Amino acid sequence: MQGKPPAYWPASGDLVVENLSARYSSDGPNVLHNLSFRIKSGERIGVVGRTGSGKSSLTLSLLRCIPADGTVYFDGIPTRTINLDELRSNITLIPQVPELLSGTLRRNIDPFGQHDDATLNDALRSAGLFSLQSESDEDRINLDTSISSGGSNLSVGQRQILALARAIVRNSKLLILDEATSAIDYKTDAVIQTSLRHELGGDVTLITVAHRLQTIMDADKIMVLDAGRIVEFDSPKELLRKEGGMLRALVDESGDRDNLIAMAESH
Q: Which residues of the chain are modeled with pLDDT < 70?
């Protein structure tokens, strides 16, 4: 098959981006401008910026969903040389409202029946599902639970947890969370964030597009985008020390300044 990567690929979540520009149509204006950065395997990266800064465009260009120039290396191989099926089956994107298939929960997290129930239940536990429901809960979700079309019989938070479990089962080395904490309650969000911190392997790279700063203030690094350009990229602690810095301005405006600073300092 053309564009088929080596069998071992990807062995790590290492991501190198060189001079990435992107647009929404072949003759449209660029929405990303010459982005270059490196994310080491296993790092947790937050991406922030005001509306229209290019956060979603960045995730779309990493998955080759929009026209782009420049080179993206995922575990050492330029992604443009890899066929789209292979690329997208090795990167997991959890969108704001994940779509699910109609059928059982088991089919949703293991569509090709490649894993046993113990593995699938471990993934659900790691993703945080069981900490949201008690053993005696009448409506307790399990592998045989029937999922209606699009997942409409589940809450957005439950759908995100199932999408995370699917990523754990797939053993994706690169996980992109286009974060929708605005759509889920604080308890569910806290469970998902705890799962992401403690349950992913040390070689899994996590990129979180943040709508709430609490989600990413303990990340290894934060990338701040503005008008399609990287204006800051460093640890939260360093960025908060920057006079006139953009992350610092976002934190100062947030109404939760002291808590966010404490999170950054404790990491």
A: 1, 134-138, 180-183
